Amino acid sequence: MTVPLKKERLGGEPTAESSAPKVPESAPPLEAGVERGKERSSAQTFESAKPDILQKSIGSVPAPRVIPQAKKDPVQTEVERILAEDIEELFQALPKDRQEKFNTRGDEVAGEVFGMMARAKANAKKIFKLIRAWLMMIPGINRFFLEQEAKIKTDRLMALAEREKDGKGKG
């Protein structure tokens, strides 16, 4: 049997009409010893066969949320792989807080590049600027190395964009 939730006013107080659960006339019969109109706690409703100690501990622990992983497009996965190439050592040398920021920004850059590719508006200059700005988050990186890595990644991403553009045009 489901117990209807109480409706509350904006102030947080239960309304008079919603203080007692409403049971329709055609509701299934209740368990023995339970009268209509009396509220039962959620622990009693779902865990009536368990001892009181278990009921209290179960009621206080929230159920873990399972968030389904969205399947990534193979092209987006390839974009992320290209961006991550040859910078593993630099990434591992970063402090943990910088690693998180770098990783988050890298995901954003990958999303932006994938968005450009999906709209068939992949612009090498924009991609290069995004990658260069992302790599500049690494402290103490040689400017020439940074420019070279950004250029290599841009070239690979543009080649991927061309392959995708040609592949979609044939279908």
Question: Outline of this structure?
Answer:
With 171 residues, the protein is mainly α. 55% of the residues lie in helices and 0% in strands.
Mean pLDDT: 75
**Helix tally?**
7
According to DSSP, the number of beta strands is 0
Radius of gyration: 29 Å
Poorly predicted sequence stretches spanning 5 or more consecutive residues: none
Task: Tell me the major beta sheet.
Answer: none
The proportion of strand residues reads under 5%
Class from helix and strand fractions: mainly alpha
SSE succession: HHHHHHH
End-to-end C-alpha gap? 54 Å
Helix content: 40-55%
What quaternary form is this?
single chain
Q: Write down the overall geometry.
A: globular
Protein described:
- By secondary structure, the chain is mostly helical.
- It is built from seven helices and no strands.
- The protein has helices at 42-46, 52-60, 74-84, 88-93, 96-118, 124-135, 143-170.
- The two termini are 54 Å apart.
- The mean pLDDT is 75.
Describe the protein's topology.
Layout: H1 42-46, H2 52-60, H3 74-84, H4 88-93, H5 96-118, H6 124-135, H7 143-170
Tags for this model:
mainly alpha, 7 helices, 171 residues
